[in-house]
């Protein structure tokens, strides 16, 4: 920001003021930094750049940083440990990867990850998951009693499969260059599948898919993740 050194703070944009405030905090060498959504007014490209620079500063300064954000990408990339809050109550405290792989409830599971985890209302009977007319086998459910649950699976664990008995009607396709996000209607709910950029789908047409069910989760109707005998 050397081109703006002669300007008063009121002459700077919101994003520039945020960066000035960051600099003022850093030069004081505090023992603990408290960042309250410091990148919220930056455009997408600059936000990524500043996120990278903050991560480098954290390593260089070795100071404790408490970082408040609604942006899960910032939390996952900057945090050593993440505290997920809902309505002022702590839902889970864990490392980013543990939050992603082992959410304690459906709120954390849906909040972490973009697109968020897919959810279905299902019924467990004799170790088999029934989602409407669809049967899902090999879901980790050893030791979980029969009953009604919420099934959850992440978009990257859904794979195109033309011959599969599972299919959904394609609604929207997001072409991102490095990947395609395919949104489809399945069992009355919208399902998102993260696919390779070469995978094609046509809105209004059926899209066959399979699921890596070993990586799926079951949640109680109240939202708590069910633990199997293996966990």
User: Helix coverage percent of residues?
Assistant: 10-25%
Shape: elongated
Question: If you compute it from the alpha carbons, what radius of gyration comes out, rounded to the nearest whole angstrom?
Answer: 22 Å
Number of distinct helices: 5
Number of strands: 14
Index terms:
single chain, 231 residues, alpha+beta, Rossmann fold, OB fold (Dihydrolipoamide Acetyltransferase, E2P), five-stranded antiparallel beta sheet, 34% strand
Structure commentary:
This protein is of the alpha+beta class. The chain has two domains: 2-80, P-loop containing nucleotide triphosphate hydrolases (Rossmann fold); 113-219, OB fold (Dihydrolipoamide Acetyltransferase, E2P). It has helices at residues 14-27, 44-61, 72-78, 96-101, 106-111; strands at 32-36, 64-68, 82-86, 89-94, 118-125, 128-131, 134-136, 147-153, 158-160, 167-175, 180-186, 189-195, 206-211, 217-219. A five-stranded antiparallel β-sheet has the order 7-6-5-8-14. The longest helix is centred in the first third of the chain and has 18 residues, at 44-61. It is elongated and about 70 Å long. The relative contact order is 0.11.
